[in-house]
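Might I ask for a little of your time on a matter of protein folding? The record follows directly beneath this note:
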Amino acid sequence: MVVVCIALFFQVLNASAVDVILPEIASGISADMSQIGWLMTGFLLVTGISIPFYGRLADRYGAGHLFVMGVALFAVGSLLAGIATNFQFLLVVRIIQAVGGAAVPGLGMVLVSRAYGPESRGMALGVIAATIGVGSAAGPLLGGVLSELMGWRFIFFVTASVALTIPFTIKALPKFEQRSAGSLDLIGGIGLGLMVAGILLVPAEGSRSGWTSDWVIVGAVMAAVGVGTLVARQAFASSPFIHRELLRNAKYLALAGMSFSVMATNLAPLIGLPVLLAFSHGLSSLEIGLVMVPGAALSAAGGLLSGRLTDRSGAKIPVRIGSMVMLVALFGLSAYSGSSPWIIAIFAGLMGAGFGFVNTPLAATISRLVSGEMLASALSMNSMLFFLGGSIGTALLFAFSTTSGLADGSLNPLHSGLAAGFSDGFLLLMIPVVIALGFSLALPAVSSREISEEEKITMPGETIAEAVPVQRWIPNCSVPWHPECVETIPAIGD
C-alpha cells in the first residue's frame, strides 16, 4: 500500500506541477509556446495509449513486475528531463516519463485490490483516491514554489526520487498472481491506441490551434481508423484486446461510463482554475496553490469516508452524495468565478469532496465485480476512461471559456471577459455529472463484498476463487493502513 501510494503521488504531482511551470520551461530551453504545448499533448497522448496495454499485459504476466518497470521508466524520464537543454530532447524524455507513469494508476489499484479482502477493499482504495487528490492539488503549489526558489528543473529531480521506492516495491510484490491465458491481440491494441490518441488530439489541438487545423483533422482520421480496427477485432478475433465479457456486462459499462463522466468534470477545474486565478485575478503561483489546498484536503477526506461507506453499504449512496456535491460546487464556481478567490476556494473544496466520494466506490465495485484474470484489464480500462474524460473535459472547458468569454451574451451577466467564459464552462460541466447520476441506477444495491457469484464477470470456465493471499482490515481499527490493523488470509490451495 505505502509504496503504491508514494509512486502514485509522484506521478500525479508531476502531471499537475509541469502545467504550472511551462512558461519557465519555455524560457529555460529557448522554446516558443507552440512547441511547449507539445510537452503536455505528447505526454497525454502516450499516457492514454499506454494505460490499456499495461492492463492487458498484466492479465497475462502479472501486475507486480510491470508496475516496478513503470516506476523505473518514470524515474529515468524525470531525471533526464531535469538535465534537458533543448526542446527535442525534453519531448523524448517526457514520452519516456509517460510510458512509465502510465503503469502507476491502473496497476497500483490492481496490486492494492489483490492485497486486501472484500471487507476492507473500499477503505484501501479510499487511501489511493486520497493520494490522487493530494497529489493533484499539491502539484501547482509545489511547482510554483520550487520553480521560484530553485528553478523548474528541480521539479523533475524531485519526482525522479520515486526510484528510491523500487527496492521496497520489489520486496512487497505478491509471490503469485492469477493470470489469463490466450494471445495478445496486438492489432486490436493498436486500434485502441489510435482511437485514444485521436480522441485526445482533437480537443487538445482544437482548443489551441482551431477546430479546422491540420492536427485536428489528423486526430479525427486516427480516431476513425482506430474505432474501425477495434470493432473488427472485437467481432472476429478469437481473443480480442478488450475482453468481451466486460463489454457484455451492463454494470461494468455503467461504472466505466461514470468514470468517464466524473473525471471529465473533475479534472477540468483542477487545470482550469489556476489559469483563471492567474490571468483574471492576478494571483501568484503560491497564492493559487493555497486556493487549491481545500480541494486536495477534502478530496482525501471524501475518498477515505466513501471507501468506508462503500465497504458497509455499497456504491450507490456515496456516488449519489458525491455527484450532488459536485453539482453544487460547479454551480457555485459558475456564480462566483469573477468573485473573491477565497470564495472560489470554498467551492473548489466542495468539488474535491464530491469527487472523493464518487471516485473510490467506482474502483472498489469494479474490483469485486470482475474476476482475478481480468482485473488488471478492467481497472486499467477504467483508468484510461478517467484519463480520456479528464482530457476532453479540460479541452472543452478552455475552448468554451475563451469563445464564450470574448463574445456577447454570456450566461452569467455578473462577470465579463475570461471569468464570464469560465462561468459558462463550469455550467457546461454539470452535464457529465447528471449523466453519471443516470449511470448510478445500474450500480449494485449491496456492498461490494456482497456481490453474488452470479453477478461477477468471469472468463468462460474460470473458477471464482482468487488464488492469492489477501490482507483483511480488522473492523473498527483506528489506522487501517497500519500493520496492527490487518490480518493475512492464506491463498486458497496453500
Remarks:
- The chain has two domains: 2-184+241-489, 185-240.
